[in-house]
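Repro:
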Amino acid sequence: MNMSFYTAAVGASQQQKRMNVVANNIANVNTYGYKAEKPSFAALMYGNVTGIDEQNLPRGTGARLISADTDFGAMGPVADTGRSLDYAILGRGFFALKDPTTGEISYTRDGSFTMSGYQLPNEEGTLTQVFMLSDGEGRFVLDESGAPIEITDSQEKQSVAVYDFVHTDGMNPIGANRYLPVEKNGEPYLVANPVVVQGSLEASSTDLATEMAKVIEAQRSFSYALRMVQTSDEVTTTINGLRG
């Protein structure tokens, strides 16, 4: 089988992966705080590699999807909700969420928080009902000191902290619109004087028109790659027929 067959097959499979990324962006067009992902491609090894007995070993050509990085640079529009527990960050940064059972701290741009009740021991050792600012799935929203935020009648938006990283490239999405930093992101730092709008939420940064154009482009590339596979197979069949 000639190399064009394998090159086209790789191209078709990679366009399918690209379509999956675009489809996920479109599916989250109405998800608050969602950041669109951008697929990145890189060239595969190409040319000939010297093998045993000075023979040249052919290698595949084409491109493959190497990553689908989240574009944190693009900010979605801010929508007024009127809910006092909704927060939107204007500019860079994340809200920090702490899982009380595992201690894991994750980060999100989705500020659609809620009030969750917990039974905590007081100084006398008896349990007292307190209400904490939560993401609705049992994780606490952290303040500037890294402590959970207890909701009181005098709750103000300044108590909700905003954290950021020197580099946000490659942050690991873990579901529920949350991210975990990786080693290259460095340590989180507290954003000084962040602009946080209470009673509003940041909408998805997905541009539907752009994503639909990417869908058409990926579909065309996929169909061309499959046509190349078919043509390559027909050429090989013809050659084998001539040999017979």
